[in-house]
Amino acid sequence: MTGPDRYDDASRDHERFENEQVAHDRDAARIETADIDEAHAWMVVEELIGQDVVTPVAESQSLVHEPSGESFRSEKALALFHKGWKAGYDAAAERRDEEPR
Questions:
Q1: Residues sharing a CB contact under 8 Å with residue 20, sequence separation 6 or more, in sequence order
Q2: Between the CA of residue 82 and those of 13, 41, 50, 56, 61, what are the distances in Å?
Q3: Which pLDDT score is estimated for 16?
Q4: Rounded CA gap, 30 and 36, in Å?
Q5: Is 65 helix (H, G, I), strand (E, B) or coil?
Q6: In a 10 Å sphere around its CB, with 0-12 CB exposed, 13-18 middle and 19+ buried, how is residue 63 labelled?
Q7: pLDDT value of position 8
Q8: Bridge partners of 72?
Q9: Where are the alpha helices (DSSP H) in the chain?
């Protein structure tokens, strides 16, 4: 064979490796919410109530997430929402901190 073997060409390996590392870092930074059970959700909600982030509304038997104004009837749904909301809020704050001034 006179030309370079296309299967031995490793010139783009560094790009593929870098893309894999970026994807791995993104996955590691994501908050895992699928494993939350009812007991853990209740503990999260109790903590949020103590921090005045969540307000229980007895008349409608719901929980209000004060920073967003969203209302929930399920502790698990609220706990999952808050984790996602906090992750988005933290990511936005991090982007703001990285912007040149």
A1: none
A2: 40, 10, 14, 15, 18
A3: 78
A4: 15
A5: strand
A6: buried
A7: 67
A8: 63
A9: 13-29, 38-50, 75-98
Give the pLDDT confidence of 31-58 residue by residue, as tens digits.
Answer: 555 678 889 999 999 999 999 999 999 9
The CA distance from 79 to 44, in Å, is 6
Residues of the chain with pLDDT under 70: 1-11, 24-34, 98-101
- Tell me the three state secondary structure of residue 71: strand
Token pair 């809020």: residue: 89
What pLDDT was estimated at residue 84?
Answer: 86
CB 72 within 8 A of CB 78: yes
- In sequence order, the β-bridge partners of residue 62 are 57
What pLDDT is stored for residue 1 in this prediction?
45
User: Tokens standing for 43?
Assistant: 């503990």
Beta bridge partners of 55: 64
